[in-house]
């Protein structure tokens, strides 16, 4: 078949299909749903990010927390990391293999979660051994 005729037939078929089947996305929105430039711009911007927390202050809060004092005293000199479990609890893991878990009802759970999320967001104090884990003490 002649390539020129074949190209013409393909173009003709495409234009017939384009007219027969309307596009799924209208090119102009209905007049009642027009957005101002400012609204359109605000929708395209990322969601506001919470202000950064002071990681050192949060770390000091965790290290002096009564709920963790027994665990930390048993594991003095060991590397302590923390990570979040599937149920939302926070696990503190020692390099000796010892661990403790803080549930959501614990007073130290919120500072631990803030420290972990802060480390993940700022990419600092991250454990090289475990994914999504932060180093509390090394």
Walkthrough of the structure:
42% of the residues lie in helices and 14% in strands. With 138 residues, the protein is of the alpha+beta class. The protein has a four-stranded antiparallel β-sheet with strand order 3-2-1-4, with helices on one face. The protein is elongated, with a radius of gyration of 28 Å. The model has no long low-confidence stretch (mean pLDDT 80).
Write the layout of secondary structure elements.
Layout: H1 3-20, H2 37-44, H3 55-63, H4 66-74, E1 80-84, E2 90-94, E3 99-102, H5 109-122, E4 133-137
Antiparallel strand pairs: 1-2, 1-4, 2-3
Short description, anyone?
The protein is α+β, with helices and mostly antiparallel strands. It has helices at residues 3-20, 37-44, 55-63, 66-74, 109-122, and strands spanning 80-84, 90-94, 99-102, 133-137.
Strand tally = 4
Structural class: alpha+beta
Total number of helices? 5
Please give the order of strands in the largest beta sheet.
3-2-1-4
**Beta-strand level of the residues, as a percent range?**
5-15%
Radius of gyration: 28 Å
Q: Which outline best applies? A: elongated
End-to-end separation: 74 Å
Helix content: 40-55%
């Amino acid at each position: 078949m002649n390539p020129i005729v074949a190209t013409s037939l393909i173009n003709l078929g495409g234009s017939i299909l384009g007219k027969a089947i309307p596009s799924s996305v209208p090119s102009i929105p209905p007049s009642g749903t027009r957005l101002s430039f400012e609204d359109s711009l605000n929708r395209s911007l990322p969601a506001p990010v919470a202000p950064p927390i002071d990681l050192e202050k949060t770390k000091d809060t965790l290290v002096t927390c009564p709920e963790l004092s027994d665990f930390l005293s048993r594991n003095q000199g060991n590397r302590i990391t923390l990570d979040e479990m599937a149920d939302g609890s926070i696990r503190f893991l020692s390099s000796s293999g010892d661990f403790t878990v803080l549930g959501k009802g614990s007073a130290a759970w919120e500072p631990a979660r803030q420290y972990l999320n802060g480390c993940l967001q700022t990419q600092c104090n991250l454990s090289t051994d475990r994914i999504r884990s932060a180093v509390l003490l090394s």
